[in-house]
Amino acid sequence: MSTSIFQIYFKEELKEHLDPDFVPMDNTDNPNPELREWDKWNREHDNIKKQGLDYWGFVSWKFQEKTGLSGRQVLDFIEANPGRDVYLFNPCILNEAVFANSWEQGDMYHPNISDIGNNFLHKIGYKDASVKETVLDRNKTVFANYVVGSSKFWENFMEFSRKLFSEADLDQKFKEDVFGAGKSNYAHDSTLPNFTFLIERLIPTYLELENIDSLGYTYTHDTVPDKYTSIFDEIMALSNLKLAINEHESDDLYEIWNYYRRALLHRNPGILAIE
User: Fold this and answer.
1) Of 31, 35, 209, 256, which shows the fewest CB atoms inside 10 Å?
2) Which residues contact 234 (CB under 8 A, 6 or more apart)?
3) Contact, 153 vs 203, CB < 8 A?
């Protein structure tokens, strides 16, 4: 099984942060910075396909800082769990545990992003989609787009995600919602459109809608970043409850999860800031 994970950097001085088990990917030209890493995925897609890889993925130069994981740990996890379509390395495990899905989380920071997501899915044929109603567990949730997928996954997802552009060409309001400068309300860049935050949330939803066999990396006490240590057991209990909700399709388990996630957030005001 041939796998390459490309680590994107956009300034020469960032090269010192790259992991030797990842493949450096130069994005210093960065012609469309408002599209973030998706633009690099799209520009490199055909070139990567020609390499004949079974799996590939992309991470940022901050990967180790955000996840606490090395490139070797990532590759070992994939090798130890062969045959999945997609592998997820989510750096925001608290968000996964306390939100039903990343759309619920997203609406707190990017106004009405779930409505934009629903509108897009309805436009392209997923007429019954309602993104906030689905519980997405750790095998379907990822933030920061730390995804390693099969060649088939990338071919299909890129085709799916390019429809944001084709639909925007047909609907001016939708175009403004997706690509309008500053529409994301992102605290770290007041000019950023919703596009990149839609991509971040459409990946989990696409995995669910297409019933893709995906597996999320599960932290242990030995591998979890220090910032989670004091609440790690509670995070894992909530995350495991979400797995059980989906396995048993249980409303009762959902109510238990909902009670305990609210209790955790109530006892720890401001805890979401660690993400």
Assistant:
1) 31
2) 97, 260, 264
3) no
82-134 confidence digits (pLDDT tens): 999 999 999 999 999 999 999 999 999 999 999 999 999 999 999 999 999 99
Does residue 205 fall inside a structural domain?
A: yes
Can you give the residue range of the structural domain that contains 165? 3-220
* DSSP percent split of the chain into helix, strand, coil, nearest 5: 55, 10, 35
Query: 66 is written with which tokens?
Result: 């955000």
CB 94 within 8 A of CB 274: yes
Domain count of the fold of the chain: 1
Q: Looking at the domain assignment, is residue 251 inside a domain? A: no
Which tokens is 101 given? 């899905």
How many residues are present in the chain? 275
Structure tokens at 11: 């300034």
* Non-local CB neighbours of 2 within 8 Å, separated by 6+ positions: 52, 53, 54, 55
* Residue 246 placed within a domain: no
Instruction: Return the beta strands (E) in the chain as ranges.
Output: 3-9, 23-26, 55-60, 86-88, 147-150, 214-216
**Contacts for 272 with CB less than 8 Å, ≥ 6 apart:** 94, 95, 98, 265
Determine whether 97 is exposed, middle or buried from the number of CB atoms within 10 Å of its CB (0-12, 13-18, 19+): buried
Burial of 132 (0-12, 13-18, 19+ CB in 10 A): middle
Instruction: Classify residue 230: in a domain, yes or no.
Output: no
Residue 209, judged by CB atoms within 10 A of its CB (0-12, 13-18, 19+), counts as middle
SS3 for 8?
Answer: strand
> In whole angstroms, how large is the CA radius of gyration of the chain?
18
